[in-house]
């Protein structure tokens, strides 16, 4: 699939992992551990952006949500349970097939699409998310522009990505992949993006980036939100 953002080799890599995606002890085990941390941040961001009952179980009722680079639906399904009408987009057809089957099995009506976001013309969404994706795209500026185009004027965007630091190279690439915590070939350190670089990309797309929160790990807390941005971070963005 040749276009501005999708790298065929990256789509093929993640497509090969599709059948194993929902196994919490399989090749995507790290994503299963990350998901609750991401969801905690996203829920807090939703409550801050659309003030309401922070104890409500369906804060996205009546809203459209888009997850870009959705994989097999690990984030799409919780967003649907929060009340959103959810669309998931992924570059790998294998992921879309597994995601669709899993959602049907859980009684969730999620619209999954395969392709490049800019070419799919899906309209605008109240919530746009993209977790650990921007480091895999061919043209980061074009990708951010496509995300902005999909965001409703008063909408909320949430992005997460690894930071490009010496520690992320040691632990995420050389460490996690070497011992099998993450599949070989998942990370390319040179493509990681710093918070400052992401802020510049968002600014060029007329988006305002919120204060980033780190996703860190410790033996006591495991994966958790932190002020330490060295490994991974998650941010909000809104229209300027």
Polypeptide structure, described:
With 240 residues, the chain is an alpha/beta fold. The chain has a single domain, classed as Rossmann fold (3-Layer(aba) Sandwich). It is 35% helix and 23% strand. The chain has helices spanning 8-15, 29-49, 76-81, 93-105, 117-120, 140-150, 166-175, 195-204; strands at 64-68, 85-90, 111-114, 125-131, 151-162, 207-209, 213-218, 222-226, 232-239. Strands 1, 2, 3, 4, 5, 6, 7, 8 and 9 form a nine-stranded mixed sheet that branches. Helix 4 links the parallel strand 2 and strand 3 (111-114). The chain is globular and about 45 Å long.
How helical, in percent, are the residues?
Answer: 25-40%
CATH class category: Alpha Beta
* Percent of residues in beta strands: 15-25%
Radius of gyration: 17 Å
> Alpha-carbon distance between the termini?
32 Å
Output the CATH homologous superfamily.
Answer: Vaccinia Virus protein VP39
By CATH, the topology is: Rossmann fold
Compressed to H and E, one letter per element, the order equals: HHEHEHEHEHEHHEEEE
């Amino acid at each position: 699939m040749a276009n501005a953002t999708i790298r065929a080799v990256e789509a093929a890599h993640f497509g090969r992992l599709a059948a194993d995606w929902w196994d919490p002890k399989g090749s995507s085990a790290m994503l299963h551990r990350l998901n609750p941390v991401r969801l905690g941040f996203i829920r807090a961001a939703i409550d801050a952006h659309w003030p309401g009952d922070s104890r409500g179980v369906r804060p996205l009722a009546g809203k459209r949500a888009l997850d870009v680079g959705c994989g097999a639906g690990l984030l799409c399904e919780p967003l649907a349970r929060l009340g959103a009408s959810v669309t998931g987009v992924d570059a790998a057809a294998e992921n879309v097939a597994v995601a669709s089957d899993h959602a049907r099995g859980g009684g969730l009506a999620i619209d999954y699409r395969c392709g490049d976001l800019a070419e799919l013309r899906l309209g605008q969404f109240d919530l746009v998310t993209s977790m650990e994706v921007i480091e895999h795209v061919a043209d980061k500026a074009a990708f951010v522009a496509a995300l902005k185009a999909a965001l409703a004027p008063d909408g909320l965007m949430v992005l997460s990505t690894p930071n490009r630091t010496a520690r992320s190279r040691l632990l995420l690439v050389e460490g996690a992949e070497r011992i099998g915590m993450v599949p070989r070939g998942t990370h390319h350190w040179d493509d990681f993006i710093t918070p400052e670089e992401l802020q510049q990309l968002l600014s060029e797309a007329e988006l305002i980036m919120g204060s980033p929160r780190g996703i860190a790990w410790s033996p006591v807390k495991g994966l958790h939100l932190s002020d330490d941005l060295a490994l991974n971070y998650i941010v909000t963005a809104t229209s300027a």
